[in-house]
Design a protein that fits this description.
Strand content: under 5%
CATH superfamily of the largest domain: Tetracycline Repressor, domain 2
Structural class: mainly alpha
Radius of gyration: 22 Å
Number of strands: 0
Oligomer: single chain
Helix content: 55-70%
Largest sheet: none
CATH class of the largest domain: Mainly Alpha
């Protein structure tokens, strides 16, 4: 690919003509708003905060954007345009492998440029769902256009099953790219090239060794509950509703009023179980991580090889996300939590990643898992599981076993092997407990 095009798309190169004073100030406002959204969420980034960041008063900012929501929508649209440009550059490569690898390389290079101060970070797109419907709809339409372009990396599609498989692949690939800011900076910039190659190696070869089986044990809700400490049933109802609202509307969209309204209870009932909304959000995260840990423990107890243990945990957690009645709490809600609470959640997330890393290391030793970088592989697992909730509508259109198999295959066999089309209907062990 043309290196000039590569650098231009990373650095968000300005138009050939010089910008007017209005455009320059508008870009500065968008930059400040993007930074605030990434740290506070869309609802927490006020016009006052933006004005202070660019040395203006609030009235001056409203000259450019009449309302905070219009500013947030403009920030999201600008990042979507940048992502589309990256996708179009990658799509110009001659084959699926080269397109996927170029896409990952572009995102890794973007993170390096952001750290070096030569490029602006993309805004976290998950907060689009917090906007009003009239502003949200065109942004979602734009994202779906980008999604279809990414799915086209593997096109054309001659049959519907392969199209559905490539839907799972495109979603997984985008989430891997969007998750990079959460962990990539643990590495030195000089190691980014090595990291990029290792990500691509996992995407190409998958985690499961060729000799590993392609069946997974699925653990029932009853098995998960039986292995967890007991919870007050009323408190569980709050957690179930709050988790879904957080995933759909973000931290600030999951208001206490909405939660008690859905449960048809009083605010007094809420405060009987929890002291404040932050306590509720923190408990949602804690409960999610307990469920992940229990799935890992059950899979470890039942699996004969480390791959069987890993695949059992992945299948069970993907099933939880696809059923969507009580999904895992999306980590995007972290950005709106107070710093001390956020640190607690991050520590718990790191423990989950360490457990996956331990399974990966032992699996490499027993030969059931390919020799991969366990830290990088654990982050790909986390991003794939975390984002599975967003494909619940897609999963509902497919037989349950096939949906789980297609999505899990992106980790098991990578994103280029179509063998899952043959084995997907036998993916879950026949004696696996049914999850209703």
């Amino acid at each position: 690919m043309d290196s000039a095009a590569h650098h231009a798309v990373l650095n968000n190169a300005p138009r050939p003509r010089s910008r007017t004073r209005f455009e320059t100030k508008r870009e500065a406002i968008l930059d400040a708003a993007a930074n605030l959204i990434n740290h506070r969420g869309a609802r927490g980034a006020t016009l006052q905060h933006v004005a202070a960041a660019v040395g203006l008063n609030t009235t001056s900012v409203t000259y450019y954007f009449k309302r905070k929501e219009l500013l947030a929508a403009a920030v999201f649209e600008r990042s979507l345009q940048r992502i589309q440009a990256m996708v179009e550059v990658a799509a110009a490569e001659p084959c699926p492998r080269d397109r996927v690898f170029r896409f990952i390389r572009l995102h890794v290079d973007l993170r390096a440029a952001v750290i070096a101060g030569t490029a602006k970070a993309l805004v976290n797109l998950s907060d689009i769902r917090t906007l009003d419907h009239d502003l949200q709809r065109p942004l979602i339409d734009h994202y779906m256009q980008i999604f279809r372009l990414v799915r086209g990396f593997w096109g054309p599609f001659s049959e519907a099953p392969r199209r559905e498989l490539c839907t799972a692949r495109a979603h997984m690939l985008l989430e891997v790219a969007f998750w990079l800011p959460a962990w990539l900076e643990r590495y030195a910039i000089n190691d980014f090239d090595r990291v990029s190659r290792r990500i691509c190696s996992i995407l190409e070869e998958g985690l499961a060794a060729q000799s590993a089986g392609r069946q997974a044990r699925l653990f029932s809700d009853e098995a998960l509950r039986g292995a967890m400490p007991g919870h007050d049933r009323a408190a569980e109802s709050f957690l179930r509703v709050a988790t879904r609202l957080i995933n759909e509307s973000g931290y600030r969209g999951a208001s206490i009023v909405r939660i008690v309204g859905e449960l048809n209870v009083t605010k007094g009932s809420f405060y009987h179980h929890l002291d404040a909304k932050d306590d509720l959000v923190l408990e949602c995260f804690r409960h999610s991580y307990k469920r992940v840990a229990v799935a890992q423990w059950l899979a470890h107890r039942e699996g004969a090889s480390e791959w069987e243990r890993l695949s059992g945990a992945i299948a069970t957690l993907v099933d939880i996300q696809f059923r969507a009645d009580w999904p895992l709490t999306r980590t995007t809600a972290l950005q709106a939590l107070p710093a001390d609470l956020r640190a607690d959640v991050v520590r718990r997330s790191d423990r989950i990643a360490l457990r996956f890393m331990g399974t990966l290391v032992d699996g490499i030793r027993d030969g059931s898992i390919n020799p991969v970088d366990p830290m990088i592989a654990s982050q790909l697992i986390l991003s794939t599981l975390n984002s599975a909730y967003d494909l619940k509508g897609w999963a509902a259109r497919l037989p349950r076993e096939r949906a789980i198999a297609f999505y899990a295959s992106t980790l098991a066999d990578g994103v280029f092997d179509d063998a899952v089309l043959a084995w997907s209907d036998g993916f879950l062990q026949p004696d696996a407990p049914a999850t209703q």
